[in-house]
């Protein structure tokens, strides 16, 4: 499967589906990253917080793929907000990855109570100007947090990585992103596994001869989202990018909508402060 590219507001492109690799240690991460690249993945999403950046770098080197063909994302940890701290944290991440640039650097959480995301963003702008983060973006930003960046800084984030799955479609944030030229990237796109075992989704999957994971990832892709499902199993990794040979109809979307319950699987960005 070849995963299509989506155009960012800085002119660069991101593969629509990537491997999100939160959980495994360095060794398990290296195995999963190498397997994913072998299967056709070209985008990997990690974070300083995941403590597996070394494993991501090892998996990339093991695959012997040309660096230019890969899109590597990492994120600034919550304890590193602030201009100087962010620059230092970026150096540490790059060191651990063993790379000389990342494709995308994200502020992991806005931490509104800490109130340093604007200064942090100015450090991100410098990293991009220096060419060490080719693109810069944010994660878990609500519209009010984005609006402050628009008002007080120079560069717009290329994307906003937010919790988004059938249980929490996060429509208002997605629409705000879109209206402002920012791609929406869905984290926990399978609701951390909560989408499985649902009769309505199993019905849609059966109708299309696809799996429940494929139906949900297709639902993401049809919204124009970037998607980073997590798996370390080669069969599932292959399954999760094989979503470009069918489409959902109104009846399917209505079945998926029955899963909406507004429940987050993670923290609330408006109140989480690290
Ligand atoms: P997910 O929604 O991707 O679900 C993962 C679960 O689904 C795992 O249990 C996995 O075994 C299972 N699964 C995956 N593919 C399957 C398949 N084809 N068939 C059956 N089961 C399958 O959950 P996640 O790991 O929480 O989210 C994905 C990624 O999002 C993370 O790895 C991380 O990179 C990112 N993330 C970011 C944030 C953030 O704050 N920015 C927060 C959480 C996660």
From TrEMBL:
NADP-dependent oxidoreductase domain span: 25-259
Entries under Gene3D superfamilies matching the protein: NADP-dependent oxidoreductase domain
Endpoints of the signal sequence: none
The keyword Metal-binding is annotated on this UniProt entry: no
InterPro entries in the cross-refs: AKR, Aldo/ket_reductase_CS, NAD(P)_OxRdtase_dom_sf, NADP_OxRdtase_dom
The keyword Oxidoreductase is annotated on this UniProt entry: yes
PROSITE patterns: ALDOKETO_REDUCTASE_1, ALDOKETO_REDUCTASE_2, ALDOKETO_REDUCTASE_3
Domain of life (superkingdom): Bacteria
Keywords assigned: NADP, Oxidoreductase
UniProt family annotation: Belongs to the aldo/keto reductase family.
PANTHER family noted in UniProt: 2,5-DIKETO-D-GLUCONIC ACID REDUCTASE (PTHR43827), NADP-DEPENDENT OXIDOREDUCTASE DOMAIN-CONTAINING PROTEIN (PTHR43827:SF3)
Protein name: Aldo/keto reductase
